[in-house]
Amino acid sequence: MKLIAIYLTVLLGCLGFAAYAGRSSAAKPCWCWSHDQGLVITKVPHPKGTEYISYGSYGSEVDWNNPDHVIPLNYSQAQGKRVFDGQCIWCHADATPAGPSNRSNVTPVPPLMNDGSVFNMLSDKELQRVIALGGSAVGKSAMMPPYGKSLTQEDIQDVILYTRAIAAPTYQRPSIWKRISWKK
Ligand code: HEC
């Protein structure tokens, strides 16, 4: 009985000290270094418009209409940008990494890929169709080539997602009720 009493006293004593130490300067095992150990932590500003925006993005696109606005791209959108840069940029943008594009020489002049006033009206399905089958298949100019044989379904989906991401005015995905269409 006595032993248990001693044991409990010591135990309570230890717990009491631990609780006290946790809240007091006794918690600092070493008082010779400052709390931050002399580390100087400064924020490194992230440059705008470089390939990557930090955290959770796979790439970025500088807004075609506003160089101060950088649009972060998720994985699929970044893949779409690659497809766009490889295939579509020559006709659907004014400038390319290799210099001016061919857009102004094409008749009819292809819409800029960020032109929300053109692309926002079209559903993903409609875009998929014209990209895969080409302009002539949907009653548009045959100057828009078919990509169904040279791009995969996924490439086409990605380039659509990229188009949606850069759209100006911003693309609003239709509500689920509008997307469930009994006709299509
Ligand atoms: C050789 C030039 C050329 C290339 C390359 C090209 N396009 Fe086009 N595209 C056109 C032209 C021209 C039109 C306009 C057709 C019309 O309005 O009759 C067009 C129209 C479109 C449209 C339909 C717009 C509408 O008003 O319905 C989509 C979508 C499109 N292009 C996507 C793409 C994508 C995606 C790529 C790359 C994978 C691509 N285009 C590559 C020339 C091109």
What does the model show?
This protein has 184 residues and is mainly alpha-helical. It has a domain at 57-176: Cytochrome Bc1 Complex, Chain D, domain 2. Helices cover 39% and strands 7% of the residues. The protein contains 6 helices and 4 strands. It has helices at 2-23, 75-92, 116-119, 124-133, 153-166, 176-179, and strands spanning 59-62, 70-73, 95-96, 99-100. The strands form 2 sheets. A two-stranded antiparallel ribbon has the order 1-2. Strands 3-4 form a two-stranded antiparallel sheet. A hairpin with a 7-residue loop joins strand 1 and strand 2. Helix 2 crosses helix 5 and helix 4 crosses helix 5. The longest helix has 22 residues, at 2-23. 17% of the residues are buried. The mean pLDDT is 85. Heme C (HEC) binds at residues 83, 87-88, 90-92, 106, 108, 110-111, 118, 122, 127, 130-131, 135, 140-141, 143-145, 147, 159.
Give me the count of strands: 4
Arithmetic mean of pLDDT: 85
| Relative strand content | 5-15%
* Unreliable runs: none
Identify every distinct bound molecule in the structure, by name, code or SMILES: heme C
